[in-house]
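Re: that backbone. Tokens:
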């Protein structure tokens, strides 16, 4: 079982690398398919995850069919509308985002983190080859609004992170039209924060398990990571958003305003969650997760960006 998991993980990463470094659309499509067929066995680790795997496969197959149709029709491969819609389906960007919060519910924490971070790299790299078009602005605006508004009344952790991912996709899609370096930097920091959340929450199914725990350090670490994911200064998540905002302001000031306002709404329900976690009376919980050195390390990484920001300003 461990050998097969290692094999599928290797082919998953290989498929992404093939797509990113592909010289043609056909080889890029092959990389996407290798990535998809490697991730499905990793998703199907339990009966509860079968439904999520089917939903994920169905939506990814639709996106792949559209891309293959465009490849087979040379006159349409330059059509940004169909290509961007296909990539938006694969990314889970709005208005094609409805499958993502539902598909992520039954996955394990490691697969959830992979789905929200690594699986975004290949479609996002292909999006950088498309020309700027009105449909791109529609995808960005819809993702910013849907990601911020969708998590307002959500208390389950995985769908909440899925809506957060949709909002972050608006930032990444905008950056893909301005700077590849900033896009890679933003996606790297986001990936670190997502896997940090996994390191804290991998033994829980609901936030109340941590908030009801007598271990105040665990809820504090979760709160800091959530706020960092929301981009609250001076935490790590603020650094990529600040860098991205400098790029986006040059590209489009109205788009920068939309992204900032949506992130403010995103940060509002993050602050609401952390306020509850820090003020709620702690009681002993029989299933409360424990804290160890493996948990502390990523927390330090995700919350210690103040020296980085200082260095960024000075140098």
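Recovered sequence:
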């Amino acid at each position: 079982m461990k050998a097969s998991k290692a094999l599928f993980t290797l082919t998953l990463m290989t498929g992404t690398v093939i797509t990113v470094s592909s010289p043609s659309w056909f080889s890029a499509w092959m990389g996407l398919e290798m990535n998809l067929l490697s991730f499905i066995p990793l998703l199907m680790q339990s009966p509860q995850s079968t439904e999520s795997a089917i939903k994920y496969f169905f939506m990814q197959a639709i996106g792949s069919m559209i891309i293959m149709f465009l490849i087979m029709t040379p006159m349409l491969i330059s059509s940004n509308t169909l290509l961007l819609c296909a990539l938006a389906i694969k990314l889970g960007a709005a208005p094609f985002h409805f499958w993502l919060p539902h598909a992520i519910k039954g996955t394990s924490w490691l697969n959830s983190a992979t789905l929200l971070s690594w699986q975004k790299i290949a479609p996002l790299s292909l999006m950088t080859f498309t020309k700027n078009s009105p449909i791109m602005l529609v995808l960005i605006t819809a993702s910013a609004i849907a990601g911020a508004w969708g998590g307002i009344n959500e208390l389950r952790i995985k769908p909440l992170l899925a809506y957060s991912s949709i909002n972050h996709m608006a930032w990444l899609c905008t950056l893909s039209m301005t700077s590849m370096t900033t896009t890679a930097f933003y996606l790297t920091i986001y990936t670190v924060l997502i896997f940090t959340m996994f390191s804290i929450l991998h033994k829980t199914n609901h936030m109340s398990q941590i908030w009801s725990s007598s271990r105040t350090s665990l809820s504090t670490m979760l709160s800091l990571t959530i706020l960092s994911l929301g981009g609250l200064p001076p935490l790590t998540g603020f650094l990529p958003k600040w860098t991205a905002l400098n790029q986006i302001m040059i590209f489009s000031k109205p788009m920068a305003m939309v992204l900032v306002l949506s992130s403010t709404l995103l940060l509002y329900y993050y602050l609401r969650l952390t306020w509850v976690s820090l003020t709620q009376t702690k009681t002993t919980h029989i299933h409360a997760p424990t804290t160890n050195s493996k948990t502390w390390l990523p927390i330090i990484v995700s919350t210690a960006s103040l020296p980085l920001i200082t260095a960024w300003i000075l140098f």
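The chain has one domain: 2-314. The chain is about 75% helix and 0% strand.
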